[in-house]
Amino acid sequence: METAGPFAALAKRKAEEASGGAAPAADTQAVPAPTDAATTAAVRETSSDTTQVWGVNVNNLDWSYPNIDGTPIDGQEPLIKGMDLKLAPGSCCLLLGANGAGKTTLLKILGGKHMVPKDKVLIHGREAFYDTGLTTSGQLSYIGGNWQRDVAFAGYGVTLAGDFPARQMLDSIPNVDPERKARIIDVLDIDPEWRMHQVSDGQRRRVQLAYGLMIPYSVLLLDEITVDLDVLGRADLMSFLRRECEERNVTIVYATHIFDGLEQFATHVAFVAGGRLRFCEPLDAIDGLKSREPGSLLDTVQVWLRQEAEAKRKERESAGFVKKKVFEYVRNSGWGEGRMASTVSFGPELGQKHVGMKGSSNAVMRN
Ligand SMILES: Nc1ncnc2c1ncn2[C@@H]1O[C@H](COP(=O)(O)OP(=O)(O)OP(=O)(O)O)[C@@H](O)[C@H]1O
């Protein structure tokens, strides 16, 4: 068990408050270690009402990416470990953590894009993966990554482009409230006549966002969607989203590394490290953030990340673990995220030089 980390401070304060003891002085620069007890305490507080229908409800979830042939990897520790996350409708939660912490993976799980055991991930009480009506109705909306599509003979994940206007994309969504549509187009400052093969990255992002926001969802999952937006575009979008939480009781989970102006945006902060939820707390309960001063999020999260990195380094050192920088070139069998299909075949039988390799053209490096 780690001995230092961002969540223990919160847990300690809660424990002391609960026992009537004095709360420790606010000190965001000295963030102690995360512990399972800390995580559990944070969750227990928010989940005490069992009759509550949570906007987002993750119950003790363990999850891993499968092997390259789609099967579980023997003996591998789960990527997502003992995850409990409960957010009431109307919560606007920032999902924070280092690169590789598991934010995108968690968002995709919440978005029903990865299969999980039943009852482990519920959106408004409905199964995120099994209840496809959640996404087809638009009640659950996931916006993340670059806008891509799979094009036969061109490959997977081709940037969405084409000689058609943005209007055509937006008009293709059925049963849209015209007022909401006009408002979103206005907030995102979209010219409906933009040709989708001539737009800039930021303009394409705006159309992507408008597309994802058009149906009045009740849960919105956002994965670093403001990277390409200019400052004004980002600020307007953030106030639109905040109003969505306040006026329509929408639950938002937003993973980002860009913190400008988010102090006023969030109701909750969830911090993930190494696939574990270190805490999910109301922003107003976090020392260093409750002032909501501009820049406080960046300062505080930087401390958390440095302490996580340090704890990780110490853990590696104490385990005597030295990562070998040796790579072996392999080709996968065609399994790709969200699909089971072979692409173009490679292998000696086709005359390629990678003797002994068979399967698809989907080459990966493994160590
Ligand atoms: N398709 C995949 N197959 C196997 N492992 C994956 C896959 N996608 C991500 N991972 C691994 O899962 C871990 C978590 O990745 P994830 O993308 O969820 O992190 P993240 O917190 O979103 O990071 P970032 O801030 O860089 O976007 C990483 O160690 C990554 O290598």
Can you put this structure into words, describing what you see?
The chain has 367 residues and is α/β, with parallel strands linked by helices. Among the domains are: 7-133 and 253-318, P-loop containing nucleotide triphosphate hydrolases (Rossmann fold), CATH 3.40.50; 328-366, no CATH class. The protein has helices at 7-18, 36-46, 103-110, 133-136, 166-171, 178-187, 201-213, 231-248, 296-318; strands at 56-63, 80-87, 92-96, 121-123, 126-127, 140-144, 148-151, 155-159, 219-223, 251-255, 268-273, 276-282, 328-331, 335-336, 339-340, 363-366. A 6-stranded mixed beta sheet has the order 6-9-10-3-11-12, with helices on both faces. Strands 2-1-4-5 form a 4-stranded antiparallel beta sheet. Strand 9 (219-223), helix 8 and strand 10 form a beta-alpha-beta unit. Helix 1 (7-18) packs across helix 2 (36-46). Residues 1-7, 21-48 and 325-367 have low confidence and may be disordered. Bound molecules: adenosine-5'-triphosphate (ATP). Adenosine-5'-triphosphate binds next to helix 3. This is ABC transporter domain-containing protein. One of its GO terms (molecular function) is ATP binding. Residues 1-36 are annotated as: Disordered.
Name the CATH class of the domain at 7-133 and 253-318. Alpha Beta
CATH topology of the domain at 7-133 and 253-318: the name is Rossmann fold
Main sheet properties: 6 strands, mixed
Give the termini separation: 26 Å
Biggest sheet, spatial arrangement of strands: 6-9-10-3-11-12
Bound molecules: adenosine-5'-triphosphate
Q: How many β-strand runs?
A: 16
Q: Spans of 5+ residues with little confidence (pLDDT < 50)?
A: 1-7, 21-48, 325-367
Number of helices: 9
Tell me the β content: 15-25%
